[in-house]
């Protein structure tokens, strides 16, 4: 029987200390190993060899193709998706892809607000005393984001006056790595940061409903909302009213949400689903567009009407907030003892039909009630804080 | 909690981490083959690879309870289209709407909402994940450690639970030093040694002070001859400084961090050397404006435009004392720009003995100023746990993106969780490295028995 010559693969697994790139694997295997003590320990271990090969591949890649990704360059998106473009060096940085993950087509690295944009938002809200709604429309930034920027800038200013150390080099590096939305003093050149009129998809619109309607009937979004929430058809007089002046009916709903018609009984009682015009964050923009379609020559008048509608909306919102605050104040009893730093606030617990429900078993109401188990030890109960009040 | 989140190279798993192992795995990851595999097997593979990335620190039962089949989505509304149509166009005809050909085209182009890409959206509410998404930590595990070690506050109160689910409007803030450590390049061996020596010096303050005092004495002795030879070497020093400042501020690709750092060190030393000639003893700890103006006076540098201005003022009294650095340092800090211009005017008014004072253009002055600012913001400090001056760690830009549901202020390392992540036509807000096929498989896996 001729002596068997081991293949490269076998020799690798048998002699893990030999790398796959070694030039003479067979000879070193057949000849006596230089250090006879080290060989017997490793003979039967094959895992480390595979690991070493993979590691060498990895470092090979990191030193060749991956080299381009190592250091950041300002305003060049060094995502894995751009590996080939970066290697070619011919693609201008603006045309590089903003997708960080090559397999996920649906996720893009979206721009963040630049420093001067944040400053501008803070200036308009905190110094010029403009409303968050108005600033949101002017700069095309979401209302929640505007409020957050003001809050964060307020904190930053506080830190600067206190002389706390800031992470300035880190901030600069991030602004260079991530796409940013720049502020332009000319409002016509201002690039929108994000879409400000996002309509959340409502739970009631999930099912597909087959609803027969006569061809002659004008079936609008208002009617569709009523069908989705199972409300009866509107009387003709109301329909005419809405068709004649859609903007005022929408503003009535957005400014007085408690007046919206309700359907259903007991626990199932809900508001009638409103049309998209009323559920978007900036409904007055639609009214403005309607005005400019109807009266294209009265541009100044239209803008005046728009600002009055905006103010009306803000006023209604402020009133609502104040009323809620007053209601809360009414419920809490405040005790401020002398020579104490603290003010104690007490709110009475309520065990009524609203909290216990119709059958008296609802677990929102506090206290032990006969036949109502405590959910304290139930699996999956959340025991860590669920909210932190500001 | 033991870290089971290894990044094996043999069975590539993608993790929420910025390590180079993870980068290598990310770039070579491919969709698993579906040939000859049962639907169950496909779902299993999809779920296991997706879960290795999404919330691997969360136990499976806990995640199963968090999973929700209802996925939040929004539709961006165009105000003009809403105004043009009250909905009756969409329901006209036989109920399917009457559309013009170009509208049909547009409807075809409209992208579908990638609902299943949002499978792991509930995990994005977790505090540790949000910290990682805001680029405050280099991995979710590290973010988790920051929370547990008490470096994170939520709405101004310390929060020690990494599993805290953020509510819309919650503001979380991480200690900036930790963020700089997590995102900065690590120290080299020599830098670690420097830090050790600095620590030892602070531990034995007496010896350190003595040595410093000795150094100072030596320095003063050295400076005396320097000061005598000052008129000759000011121009040379200024030239050298300018060259160094330019290299520091250059954004060329070829400049390696090590080279830049060398330059920065040299620049810092040169500035110190120049400033130590000043009569004011506090100048080294002074604010930037006064340092800058001091530098200008010491080096007799002037602006190019002020040339004729200088000519006019030659008749005025030769008041060398007017450019006293102490007077300048006392200038109000509230108006730095004004202070600077005043300092320059003083410097120009000061009748120069030599006509050949070094002249700098506006851009050169600007470069010098910016180099000084950068040195102040990003100083060399061996006591920090990261390499100084701070620079981003290797391969950081590969993973740098901030999702829309967060608003981050990097200066104070704070962020606001604006809302829950949503899907919109063509886009999902959950950062996931996987394709729709994997996330759909995972979604189907968790849908069972529900």
UniProtKB/TrEMBL annotation, chain A:
GO terms for biological process: mitochondrial translation. Pfam families: Bot1p (PF12298). GO terms for molecular function: structural constituent of ribosome. InterPro entries: Ribosomal_mS45 (IPR021036). Residues 11-38 have a biased composition (Low complexity). Residues 290-329 have a biased composition (Basic and acidic residues). Residues 1-10 have a biased composition (Polar residues). It comes from the Eukaryota. GO terms for cellular component: mitochondrial small ribosomal subunit. PANTHER family: 37S RIBOSOMAL PROTEIN S35, MITOCHONDRIAL, SMALL RIBOSOMAL SUBUNIT PROTEIN MS45. This is Eukaryotic mitochondrial regulator protein-domain-containing protein. It comes from Aspergillus ruber (strain CBS 135680).
From TrEMBL, chain B:
The lineage of its organism: Eukaryota, Fungi, Dikarya, Ascomycota, Pezizomycotina. Residues 205-216 have a biased composition (Acidic residues). Signal peptide: none annotated. Component of the mitochondrial ribosome (mitoribosome), a dedicated translation machinery responsible for the synthesis of mitochondrial genome-encoded proteins, including at least some of the essential transmembrane subunits of the mitochondrial respiratory chain. The mitoribosomes are attached to the mitochondrial inner membrane and translation products are cotranslationally integrated into the membrane. It comes from the Eukaryota. It is found in: Mitochondrion. Residues 188-204, 217-236 have a biased composition (Basic and acidic residues). Residues 183-236, 306-336 are annotated as: Disordered. This is Small ribosomal subunit protein uS4m. Residues 125-185 form the RNA-binding S4 domain. The keyword Endoplasmic reticulum does not apply. GO terms for cellular component: mitochondrial small ribosomal subunit. Keywords: Mitochondrion, Ribonucleoprotein, Ribosomal protein, RNA-binding, rRNA-binding. GO terms for molecular function: rRNA binding; structural constituent of ribosome. GO terms for biological process: ribosomal small subunit biogenesis. It holds the Pfam family S4. Belongs to the universal ribosomal protein uS4 family.
């Amino acid at each position: 029987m001729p002596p068997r010559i081991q293949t490269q693969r076998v020799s690798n697994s048998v002699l893990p200390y030999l790398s796959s790139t070694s030039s003479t694997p067979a000879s070193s295997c057949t000849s006596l190993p230089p250090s006879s003590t080290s060989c017997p320990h490793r003979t039967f271990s094959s895992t480390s060899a595979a690991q070493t090969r993979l590691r060498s591949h990895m470092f090979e890649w990191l030193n060749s193709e991956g080299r381009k990704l190592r250091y950041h360059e300002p305003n060049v998106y060094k995502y894995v998706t751009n590996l080939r473009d970066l290697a070619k060096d011919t693609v201008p940085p603006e045309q590089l892809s903003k997708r960080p993950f090559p397999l996920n087509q649906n996720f893009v690295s979206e721009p963040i607000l630049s420093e001067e944009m944040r400053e501008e938002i803070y200036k308009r809200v905190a110094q010029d005393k403009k409303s968050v709604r108005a600033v949101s429309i002017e700069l095309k930034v979401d209302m929640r984001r505007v409020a957050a920027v003001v809050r964060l800038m307020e904190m930053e200013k506080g830190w600067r006056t206190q002389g706390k150390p800031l992470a300035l080099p880190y901030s600069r590096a991030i602004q260079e790595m991530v796409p940013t939305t720049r502020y332009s003093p000319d409002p016509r050149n201002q690039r929108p940061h994000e879409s400000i009129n996002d309509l959340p998809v409502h739970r009631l619109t999930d099912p597909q409903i087959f609803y027969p309607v006569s061809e002659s009937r004008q079936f609008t979004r208002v009617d569709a909302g009523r069908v989705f929430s199972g409300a009866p058809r509107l009387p003709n007089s109301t329909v005419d009213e809405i068709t004649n002046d859609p903007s005022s009916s929408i503003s009535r709903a957005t400014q007085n949400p408690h007046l919206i018609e309700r359907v259903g009984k007991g626990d199932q009682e809900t508001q009638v689903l409103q049309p998209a015009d009323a559920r978007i964050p900036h409904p007055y923009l639609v009214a403005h567009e309607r005005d400019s379609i109807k009266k294209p020559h009265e541009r100044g008048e239209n803008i005046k009407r728009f600002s009055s509608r905006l103010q009306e909306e803000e006023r209604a919102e402020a009133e609502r907030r104040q009323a809620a605050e007053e209601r809360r104040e009414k419920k809490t009893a405040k005790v401020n003892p002398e020579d104490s730093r603290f003010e104690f606030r007490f709110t009475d617990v309520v065990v009524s039909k609203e909290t216990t429900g119709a059958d008296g078993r609802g677990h929102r109401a506090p206290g032990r009630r006969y036949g109502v188990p405590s959910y304290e030890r139930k699996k999956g109960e959340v025991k860590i804080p669920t909210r932190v009040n500001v | 909690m033991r870290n089971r989140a290894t990044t094996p190279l043999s069975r590539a798993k993608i993790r929420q981490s910025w390590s180079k192992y993870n980068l290598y795995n990310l770039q070579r990851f491919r969709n698993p083959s579906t040939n000859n595999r049962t639907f169950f097997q496909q779902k299993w593979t999809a779920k296991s690879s997706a879960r290795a990335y999404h919330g691997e620190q969360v136990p499976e039962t806990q995640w199963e309870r968090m999973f929700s089949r209802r996925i939040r989505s929004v539709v961006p509304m165009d105000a003009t289209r809403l105004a043009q149509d009250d909905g009756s166009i969409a329901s006209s005809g036989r109920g399917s709407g009457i559309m013009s050909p170009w509208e049909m085209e547009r409807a075809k182009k409209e992208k579908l909402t990638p609902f299943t890409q949002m499978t792991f959206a509930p995990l994005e509410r977790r505090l540790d994940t949000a910290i990682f998404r805001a680029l405050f930590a280099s991995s979710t595990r590290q973010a988790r450690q920051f929370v547990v070690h008490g470096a994170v506050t939520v709405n101004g109160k310390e929060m020690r639970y990494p599993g805290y689910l953020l509510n819309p409007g919650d503001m979380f803030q991480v200690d900036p030093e930790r963020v700089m450590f997590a995102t900065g390049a690590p120290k080299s061996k020599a830098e670690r040694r420097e830090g050790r020596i600095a620590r030892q010096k602070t531990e034995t303050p007496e010896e350190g002070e003595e040595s410093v005092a000795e150094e100072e004495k030596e320095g003063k002795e050295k400076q005396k001859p320097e000061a005598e030879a000052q008129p000759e070497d000011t121009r040379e020093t200024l030239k050298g400084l300018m060259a160094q400042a330019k290299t520091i501020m250059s954004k060329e690709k070829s400049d390696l961090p090590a080279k830049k750092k060398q330059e920065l060190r040299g620049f810092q030393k040169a500035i110190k050397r120049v400033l130590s000639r000043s009569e004011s003893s506090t100048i080294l700890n002074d604010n930037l404006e006064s340092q800058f103006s001091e530098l200008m006076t010491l080096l007799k540098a002037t602006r190019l435009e002020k040339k004729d201005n200088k000519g006019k003022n030659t008749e005025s009294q030769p008041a060398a004392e007017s450019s006293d650095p102490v007077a300048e340092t006392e200038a109000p800090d509230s108006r730095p720009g004004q202070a600077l211009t005043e300092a320059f005017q003083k410097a120009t008014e000061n009748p120069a003995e030599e006509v050949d004072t070094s002249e700098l253009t506006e851009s050169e002055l600007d470069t010098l100023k910016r180099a000084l600012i950068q040195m102040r913001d990003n100083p060399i400090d061996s006591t920090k746990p990261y390499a100084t001056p701070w620079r981003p760690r290797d391969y950081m830009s590969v993973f740098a993106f901030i999702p829309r549901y967060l608003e981050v202020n990097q200066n104070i390392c704070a962020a606001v969780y604006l809302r829950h992540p949503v899907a919109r036509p063509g886009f999902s807000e959950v950062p996931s490295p996987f394709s729709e096929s994997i996330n759909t498989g995972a979604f189907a896996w968790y849908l069972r028995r529900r």
